[in-house]
Amino acid sequence: MFIPVKKSEDRKENYGLLLEHLPYYINADEPFWTTLANAAAVIDYFLDDVNWVGFYLLEKDTLYLGPFQGLAACTRIKMGHGVCGQAALKQETMLIEDVAAFPGHITCDAASKSEIVVPLVKNGRLFGVLDVDSPSLNRFSSMDRVYLEKVAAILVDIL
């Protein structure tokens, strides 16, 4: 039951709305992937100029495609490979202004030009990553990093 909210023209205001509404779609009594499915939709709704929002979930040494919004994507990424694999390996957010300039970038959607990947970590344990792509170069900033890390913290809190 999505609460209809008109998005703002201001990115920071939209992040505020995202953080305000995300908890309505989180239920610790349901499987984590259910929460991630709704989270991907809510994030996609409140972010402008993005073409892919989703999650890759860790199993052994591989990230597997989880819930997402956008075109079909790569189904598995080895730790350390591509932006998602590097962010997971380092357990730190990676903000890539131009994916074509990133050595080893894995292309899933040729329209993607920039990317931000936020690890999902709780008590030092990696569960996966939140991946957001844009068809524009330099789409993501330190503000996106701050707010998407807050989103990730909300999500892993229920694990």
Tags for this model:
Beta-Lactamase, alpha+beta, 4 helices
Task: Write up this protein.
The chain is an alpha+beta fold and 159 residues long. The protein has one domain: Beta-Lactamase. It contains four helices and six strands. The chain has a six-stranded antiparallel beta sheet, sandwiched between helices. Strand 2 and strand 3 form a beta hairpin. Helix 1 (11-21) runs parallel beside helix 4. The longest helix has 15 residues, at 32-46. The mean pLDDT is 94.
The number of distinct β-strands equals 6
> In angstroms, what separates the terminal alpha carbons?
22 Å
Question: What is the helix/strand order?
Answer: HHEEEHEEEH
Helix share, percent: 25-40%
Beta fraction of the residues? Answer: 25-35%
Mean pLDDT: 94
Q: What structural category arises from helix and sheet content?
A: alpha+beta
Q: Order of strands side by side in the largest beta sheet?
A: 3-2-1-6-5-4
The CATH topology is what?
Beta-Lactamase
What global shape is seen? globular
The number of distinct structural domains comes to 1
User: What's the CATH H-level superfamily name?
Assistant: GAF domain
User: Under the CATH scheme, which architecture would be assigned?
Assistant: 2-Layer Sandwich
* Uncertain residue segments: none
